Amino acid sequence: MAAGSKTAIEVGGRRLTLSNLDKVLYPAAGFTKAGVLDYYARVAPVMLPHLAGRAVTMVRFPNGVAGDSFFEKRRPPHAPAWVRSATVDGLIACVVDDAPTLVWMANLAALELHTLQARVDDPGHPTSMVFDLDPGAPADILTCCAVALELRHALDGLGLVSVVKTSGSKGLHLAVPVRGATAEDTKAFARGLGQLLATQHPDQVTVVMAKPERRSRVFVDWSQNDRHKTTVCAYSLRAQPQPLVSTPLSWDEVSDALDSRDAAALTFEAPQVLERVQRFGDRYAPNVEVDQELPNLG
């Protein structure tokens, strides 16, 4: 296909014009824009529940992951009329409720999609409390596994369901579905639980943002619960040399990887994720399906 060529397709009853399908967006893997579009079209059934009703921040890579990128929070002026939008904190943002919108974003080389924890129709109440586990070298994703399992144990003790996914980079994301809480509630709760772990495991865990404090430890980033902060969506591609994906895991996979010391077992590229979805369905579904309230720890 010649550079700059275009092709028209139909997705979900919407006609889309796709461009530069042969452009390589992940040079180290030879993964093209066509591959990106195919991935997002096929993963849509499990990804859309985690996007639906939320303002989306696109991270666009017009020339692939080796080139420049930019964040796009505002709805582009050239967006089709059928792309839903909503005003959040004075900014008109896109909302991804359907497969055509998801594929349209992929055609913009929006490799990464990040969302707020709250939906646009109720911005004051997040639907999820998140723990972003970020390892400071030489700590790694296996160290994150140990911390995630400690967090899960504490949450289980409080009667709270939690789910886990890879960040698609070097860490893990743990999420707790919540109802009726504010961002201030979830942020304070996450910080408190992180501080408890830091007290119990001072050589392994920190809640301090300063970089020197994070060396050799896992930073439990409670601040991701701030009303204005976004987290990469489940099933989003990441800007890594390979087309890695922020991939939902089972807790057994986390335990097994830690026991076997096999960090590679927690690294998944787009084709592998599609196979996993076929086998397991959406392992992150509880994050949008479970209805639970945060306990009062006062």
Q: What CATH architecture of the largest domain do you see?
A: 2-Layer Sandwich
Reported for the largest beta sheet, the result is: 6 strands, antiparallel
Q: Which range does the strand content fall in?
A: 15-25%
Helix content range: 25-40%
Distance between the termini: 63 Å
**Mean pLDDT over all positions:** 96
Count of discrete structural domains? 2
Order of helices and strands: EEEEHEEEEHEEHEEHEHEEEHHH
Secondary structural class: alpha+beta
What does this structure look like?
- This protein is an alpha+beta fold.
- The chain folds into two domains: 6-115, DNA primase, PRIM domain, CATH 3.90.920.10; 128-289, Alpha-Beta Plaits (2-Layer Sandwich), CATH 3.30.70.3300.
- It contains eight helices and 16 strands.
- It has helices at 33-51, 99-107, 141-157, 183-200, 211-214, 251-260, 270-280, 286-289; strands at residues 6-11, 14-19, 24-26, 31-32, 55-60, 70-72, 85-88, 91-95, 110-115, 128-135, 163-166, 172-177, 205-206, 218-221, 231-232, 248-249.
- Strands 5, 6, 7, 8, 9 and 15 form a six-stranded antiparallel beta sheet that branches. It has a six-stranded mixed beta sheet with strand order 13-14-10-12-11-16.
- Helix 5 links the parallel strand 13 and strand 14.
- Helix 1 (33-51) crosses helix 2, helix 1 packs across helix 7 (270-280) and helix 3 (141-157) packs across helix 6 (251-260).
- The longest helix is centred in the N-terminal third of the chain and has 19 residues, at 33-51.
- The mean pLDDT is 96.
